[in-house]
Amino acid sequence: MNFFEHQDQARKNTRKLIFLFALSLLFITGTVYLAAVVTLSGSLKGSKPRSSRNAINCTQPRPAASEPGVTPNMSDPAQRFKPRDSNRVAVSSSPVLVPCPPVTQKAAFSWWQPSLFFTIGTGTVVLVGLGSLYKIQTLKAGGSIIAQEMGGRLLLSEMAHPEERQLLNVVEEMAIAAGISVPAVYVMDNEQGINAFAAGFTPNDAVIGVTRGTLEQLSRDELQGVIGHEFSHILNGDMRLNIRLIGILHGLLLLYITGRVVIDWRPRGKEGNAVLAFGIALVVIGSFGLLCGRLIKSAISRQREFLADASAVQFTRNPAGIAGALDKIANHHYSSLVHAPSAESNSHLFFGSALRFNFLEELFATHPPLGQRIRRLNASKRQYAGQAPMSSSSPAVGEESLTMGFAGGSPVTRSPHIQANPAQIVSQIGTVTPEHYAYAKALLGQLPESLLLGIREPQGAIAIVYGLLLDTQNLQVRTQQLEWLKQVEPADVIEKTLTLSADIDALDPRSRLPLVDLTVPVLRQSDTDQHQRLFKCIQGLANADGRWSLPEFVLYAVLRHRLQPSSATSTQATEFTTIGQIWSDCLILLSGLAQVGQTGTDAIAYAFRSGVYRLPGAGQETLPDAPPACNMKTLKHSLDRLNLATPKLKQAIVDACAHTVLLDNKVTVQETELLRAIVILLDCPMPPFLNTGSKMFARNV
Question: Which of 89-96's residues contact partners 24+ apart within 8 Å by CB, and which partners?
Answer without folding.
Answer: 91/64, 91/65, 91/66, 92/64, 93/63, 93/64, 93/66, 94/63, 94/64, 95/61, 95/62, 95/63, 96/61, 96/62, 96/63, 96/64
